[in-house]
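Question: Now follow the chain.
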Amino acid sequence: MRVLIPFLILALLPACVAANVERSARPLPRPAPAAAPALPAGSFEVWRTGFETRARAAGITQTTLDTARPHLRLLPETVALDSRQSEFGARVWDYMDSAVTSQRIQAGRAAMTRHAQTLTQIEARFGVPPEIVAAIWGVETSYGANRGNTPILATLATLAKDGRRAAFFEGELIAALRMVQLGKVTPARFTGSWAGAFGHTQFMPTSYLTYAVPLSGSGVADVWSDNPADALASAANYLAKRGWTRGQPWAQEVVLPSGFDLGLTGQRRSDWSSLGVTAVRGALSQAPARLLLPGGARGPAFLAYGNYDVLKEYNISDAYVLAVGHLSDRLAGAGGLRGLWPRSDRALTLDERIEVQRILNAQGYDTAGVDGRHGPATVAAVQAWQKANGLPPDGYINADLLARLRR
């Protein structure tokens, strides 16, 4: 889903990617057939021949491969989409603006009303609130309106041969063939996004094999049906299996007192109220939480609880989690955020994001890699640099910080 969420503006990582393919019983692989006639080096046919050998070794039968072979073809449009990566880093508020619109809030509330019985049953079984399930559904496919019609076997084969993460997508393709082999779906019905995710809540094949469940409790989880029940139940099961805590908020927007120590940003603790932190709405939960300042000291502040991290298992992007979480709050009747984003800040280019890391590392602040991805290690390095240079240590990375680093 990044664009593995192909229906949103910003490119993220694929949603709910399982760590391992389901380890089901595997039949003994058949002997490899006689070598095919030599084909031009690098051709799709050469790759497919080698892939089928690896698939058989992974337990995919020759019958399944014969059935799937007409569907294992090259999609030039997938190659083009995979290579179309923006050089600019996402600004969290841009993503949230695109994901949490008034139309999506209204459509979500209507969808929750239509499927109230299903969502109530899901909450009782998995402990995940209706608004969270509905928010994932809304962000992923606009409540089923944009599920995608790309042939999954073809697009996974294309990405496994010519994509930027070939090994990852080859594993997903083998999982997709296992789905066909187990009778979960036919190749002709196996459609979804160009990046390999499918269904109302955009599962990848490994996640389907591990977490997909029929809400009825029997049969095959039909995440392609116009009826979203199985897809919504599967998303809830994913969160439950990843550690969703019933009754705990995903996060709360908070207000920090004057003079608050921004060096506490990113720390997990349960005594925030004793430090003068208050909730924008309602009472502050006493569960352990991390302080997040995704827009720096000038933007909204959040306490992120354990369920925030569970949502990151579904999609590792903080922008995605904030969008899903905020949409869920709006679906439940809450208003907009009180804090204001620093919208005048421009997005850094990839080269600039890499430069930030290079300068920090050169000055002795370890970012755990120089790849332009500003994860927790980079944020911690920025905080340490800010503190050493007499700046508010909020870990926020923007053009002003880069200019200071260059001096």
Summary: The mean pLDDT is 90. The chain is about 45% helix and 5% strand. Strands lie at 150-151, 191-192, 251-255, 268-269, 278-279, 289-292, 301-304. The first strand starts at residue 150 and ends at 151.
